[in-house]
Design a protein that fits this description.
Length: about 450
């Protein structure tokens, strides 16, 4: 175990860089402390690379190579989602280390999402600078500070790079991981490299009425009208289909699948429709691969238990499948609800990202680093990222944008993201450093 690297990681995990949807609830002090700690822990990097603050707390570093064109951009974000401490087995910002050997595990908010990648990148760069190594072409480190709230840090970095005429050859952000058993019929370890990500939007649903005392309710009060609208949405999900990144994933994994999955994956021209209809039965992740999903995440009604709500509201979080759009999803919701007295408004939304190629130089570099650092038996495959990331902003200046975190994650470890007991195994994290080192050497 590289004890020094692990202790640096734990120190940074202890800084509660929590981002909130309400800017007034955010505390700037931890972000300033995080930057100060980076300068102390990584002195060689800060001596060699040119660093600047972008926006409020986003960080951009430039590592000058032998040539400035076609640079590599390594992305991560330092902010984390809020916690409910009582739900955690270990305090979420203590970075508790448990176990020994292969079972050694760090428990902390941000251990995977996304300080795991951020600190692994820093460790790789610090080591290479210490060796006197210099990249063939420029390398940028782009660290956002408000990714978890779809904020302004990453867009500001992209705007700055565009103004300076920077056109990256390759951008790599957080995303899929090294997993096994995530694709039906495939037992091999797979490196799920996101070539695209779904769009994200929120619809607001509002029902209104005159109000009054709860002892004399009308036939269809605002809360009941809203509940009916939500039920109709639930009973009319978006249609299923196989989009190009998902088709590419199944074709790539077909040789490693057991029967009958192998035959199904090899003959998608015939079996694609059936596969799309069956995949939702395998769980939430495979359902999200084949359809635009919608779920109600917030509800509000009256202020008192004996008062009729004059306004009942719901927030619907929608994740758009490749090829879908904010406009289409809004109209689909309007048709499903079929109630002109339900007000529907788009609070915010962005369409799905463009699809990056799963062939060519950029893809080859990532796949090569997967093999050298994580194992030649790991199968790199294109993947449709289900969540949104800061990388979507970089598609405006780069055609080769990928989403991959070089960590072996179990299903329970993936489930802990944005939930309690987030954690990462030490040996898994250390191997991730090796991936970034190898990828940088290929730049």
């Amino acid at each position: 175990m590289d004890t020094a690297a692990v202790e640096r990681f734990r120190e940074l995990l202890r800084i509660p860089t929590v981002s909130h949807t309400d800017p007034a609830a955010s505390d700037a002090a931890p972000f300033a402390r995080f930057r100060d700690t980076l300068r102390r822990l990584y002195p060689l990097l800060h001596a060699e690379l040119e660093g600047e603050l972008v926006g409020e707390h986003a960080m951009l570093y430039r590592w000058r190579g032998h040539a400035p064109d076609a640079p590599l951009v390594l992305m991560a974000h330092c902010d984390v989602v809020p916690v409910v401490p009582d739900e955690w087995t270990h305090p979420p910002f203590d970075a508790v280390l448990t176990g020994e050997g292969e079972e050694a595990t760090i428990h902390a908010r941000g251990a995977i999402d996304d300080k795991g990648s951020l600190v692994a990148i820093l460790e790789a760069v610090e080591a290479l600078v210490g060796e006197g190594w210099r990249p063939a072409r420029d390398v940028y480190l782009a660290f956002g500070h408000d990714e978890e709230v779809a904020g302004l840090g990453a867009p500001a970095i992209v705007d700055l790079l565009r103004e300076r005429g920077v056109r990256p050859a390759l951008v790599l952000d957080e995303g899929g991981a090294v997993v096994s058993g995530a694709v039906p019929g495939v037992d091999s370890e797979t490196a799920m490299i996101g070539v695209a990500e779904r769009g994200v939007m929120t619809l607001g649903l509002t029902a209104r009425e005159a109000g009054g005392h709860a002892s004399t309710p009308p036939p269809l009060p605002a809360t009941a009208r809203l509940a009916r609208a939500i039920d109709r949405l639930q009973r009319h999900p978006a249609p299923v289909r196989l989009v190009p990144p998902v088709r590419a994933m199944f074709r790539t994994l077909a040789p490693f699948a057991r029967e009958p999955f192998r035959s199904v994956f090899l003959n998608l021209a015939v079996t694609g429709g059936l596969l799309a209809r069956v995949l939702p039965r395998f769980g939430a992740e495979t359902n999200a691969l084949v359809r635009t999903t919608a779920v109600v995440t917030e509800l509000s009604g009256a202020d008192g238990e004996n008062v009729l709500a004059t306004t009942a509201r719901a927030a619907v979080n929608i994740r758009l499948l490749t090829g879908d759009s904010v406009t289409e999803a809004t109209e689909r919701a309007r048709r499903a609800i079929a109630d002109p007295l339900i007000e529907i408004d788009v609070r915010h939304g962005s369409d799905p990202s463009p699809v990056s190629p799963w062939r060519g130089e950029g893809w080859r570099r990532i796949a090569t680093a997967v093999g050298s650092a994580l194992g030649t038996d790991v199968v790199p495959t294109p993947y449709l990222q289900l969540g949104a990331s800061d990388s979507r902003w970089f598609t405006a200046i780069c055609e080769n944008v990928y989403r991959f975190a070089p960590f072996r994650l179990t299903a329970s470890e993936r489930d802990a993201l944005h939930a309690h007991d987030e954690r990462i195994r030490v040996d898994v994290w250390l191997r991730g450093i090796g991936f970034y080192r190898d990828l940088l050497r290929l730049s």
